[in-house]
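Deliverable D4.2, example record:
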Amino acid sequence: MADLKRLAEAFIFAAEAPLSFERLCLLLERSRPEVRPLMQELLTEYSAGQRGFYLAEVAGGYQFRTDPDCGIWLRKLSKERPLRFSQAALETLAIIAYRQPMTRAEVEYLRGVDSGGVMKTLLEKNLLKIIGKKDVPGRPLMYGTSRQFLELFGLRSLEDLPTLKEVSALDPELAEAVPLEPESDN
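Output generated by the structure prediction step:
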């Protein structure tokens, strides 16, 4: 079991993106019931220690991530500037994350302003993706969040997004600024 654990750590460490449970089982040549307790043990071990990194379940897989407390020091290592989001980008991302799939027109209706430039930027940063065309006249593109979005925000899946009630508890202004509920026409 110790060798299997070391091998699982090596696969996760070497992977360029979060490694899915299914892929890990294939790489380890073991069944899901054999690998599941191993991964639970690794998650527990890495969460208990005071290390500069931890094992996270993110974007549908496993990935080693650096401790957020080390962030200011790690910026010295990287020449890249951390991603910064405008208020418009955050609003657009939140609306799409909670209500996807959505067309550009639907986003613009909810925000009340043109969102084409913001959406283009979010597409370029791979935080949004085109997920199809809506079956209405004109067949507008439909957008949703990407795996990169989940990775960036440390989410396993969209179900890990905070509820509107949780957002309201943190910042009532933000909850009002980002209309997540459809407006009724009555």
